[in-house]
Amino acid sequence: MSDQTDAAGPRPSVPYWHLYVDGDGTSHQSQCALTDYQLKAVGPADPQWNDKMERSEATVVFTVQPVGWVGDWHENPAPQWIIVLSGRWWIESMDGTRIEQGPGDFSFGEDQGCTEVNGKKGHRSGTIGDQPCCLMTVQLHVKPRRGSCHLT
């Protein structure tokens, strides 16, 4: 291992939540991690750890959800990275798993193609607390894939 790699520390593992659909069309959430980091310099800067995703077209959308906002059962409009910038929110999948996220937390929403069961399809989400939740989404123009943690 080179001195640069030693100085940069061990290869990172950065956690995120993945909202996905199983083979039966039910949404689930699982904790995954970005782990495919490579140590590389950008221009004359010191090397940094980069986990580069597959290239695709994308649309960036900033969202502000008001205090008390609830998005009843729905699917994400596209496979998308969702980053919490401020405030807090929750996400509940069809299997009953509910997670809460705050500033700096992020997830990958890929619940397109769910099968409706007892009025549930996709996920529900909503704000927590007495302030709006500001999100940045990066909607990928790719076909959704089934199964969890396939980005790693």
TrEMBL record:
Q: Which UniProt keywords apply?
A: Plasmid
Supply the Gene3D superfamilies for this chain: Jelly Rolls
Cross-referenced InterPro entries: RmlC-like_jellyroll, RmlC_Cupin_sf
SUPFAM superfamilies xrefs: RmlC-like cupins (SSF51182)
Indicate what this protein is called per its UniProt record: Cupin 2, conserved barrel domain protein
